[in-house]
Amino acid sequence: MKENYAIEMLGITKRFGNILANDHIDIRLQKGHILALCGENGAGKSTIMSILFGLYTPDEGVIKKEGEVVKITNPNDATSLNIGMVHQHFKLVDTFTVLQNIILGDETLKEYRGDNLNFVKKSLNYLNKKIFKIIDYKKAREDINKIINQYDLQVDLDKKIKDISVEMQQKVEIIKMLYRKNEILIFDEPTAVLTEQEIQDFLKVMNNLKKEGKSIIFISHKLNEVFEVSDEITVIRKGQYIDTLKTSETTKEEISALMVGRKLKEFNGKTKKTPKEEVLRVEHLTMIDPFSKKKVVNDVSFNVRKGEIVTLAGIDGNGQQEVVYGITGIKKAHDGVITLDKKDISSYSIREKIKAGISHIPEDRHKHGLILDYSIYENTVLDRYYEKEFSKCLFLNEKNIKKYADELIDKYDVRSSGDGNTIVRSMSGGNQQKIIVGREIERNQDLLIAVQPTRGLDVGAIEGIHNLLLKQREEDKAILLVSLELDQVFALSDRILVMYEGEIVGEFTPNEVNKETLGLYMSGAKKDVVNAIKEGVNE
User: Fold this and answer.
1) 310, 316, 351, 539 — which has fewest CB within 10 A?
2) Claim to verify: residue 517 and residue 528 sit in the same structural domain
């Protein structure tokens, strides 16, 4: 019986210099199915999907669409074959509106004669009889609104991209694909930057697209999501095809083992430990948004001690990131005192805070963690290049930098298409993250601030990061963790501080609260109840 395949990628091979990124990989997507593509960071998942979308051309192999061999040399070829892709890092123009981004490159045009355009007649009389083509925004808006209503993808078409949330940006990318009438959809790590509720909303969208007959390839490291929506799972490891299994006939444990080439150890959690002296104290911290002039952090106070992990938990956008900005100096605090090892560092510069004993794994690795056009070697010493070990008389000690970086690359399993001279921009997001994690932990500071440290990492790498954080705890480091993932919050935290609308609304230990209660605090429901009681008493 002939299989009903929407896409077949057969024997796909891609080399970058001496590195074999894809080694004769086979991928088959059935019509109307969701195929999950799983593998470790750097396994070649994004590369082979970039080949399908025309960003790369394969060195060997063929692509078939509905049984017919097709040639895809650029994204225009892919679009003409009704193939669309939402990239891990969105491809949107920040200063354009949502509407302009959706139609960019596929504008509907309407014709006008020059003699019908008053502004042309007045200023350019010699063009009067010529025909002009102008973007038909009215028609585009009507077509887009039909898509929005059909798939329940509510967005404001007139807002600029820079003014909308990450979840909204993702919806814009999906609408872009549907506006182009794409039937084969590729999602590359689409949930990496979403909260738990946003993830559930996105999975509903995927299921709706499937019901409409779309065929979907879904790259994800999060196996809960993979098992919730996929029909089949294809695993690749180190650039090679491993296996394809029906989701209903396999387990998360089996897929994890196929991804990393070994059975993962069961996570036993942290050992009991009594925290020691205080390292960080934050008192009455207030942060104000420079544009809206509103308080995004309102009178927040807490501490972190040696040998404990304190987690700021909450739905994204409730002030956790601004607290970190205030502590690290990325943004200036409006009010409050920050003490590190009993020393007031409130007015310190970023470098002075680093030298005082703060390591920081930032949420946005591209904006605050790396210089993408620098090499791995250069990025490993971004905040240490001026130290005696790495420089002398304004000159970098390249020998010492290389030795240090090579050790870090080996220890943290950083994989690239070459050696330490590899430009970081060319690496996978997960391996970029490993560079930052390794660099910040190896600095051996008193305080480690880790914001979404496992974002975009595979199951094996997540296991490694969890163990590294727990090792830091055992070595009496103070750790401030910011995480949206409740499993991680409960696995690692000694204390959980819940933030809602810029305030700490609850403090718990993991054994005295469950996920449901924590979720109520994160959504503000508990705060609303408490406020209602207070108002009733006051009356």
Assistant:
1) 539
2) yes
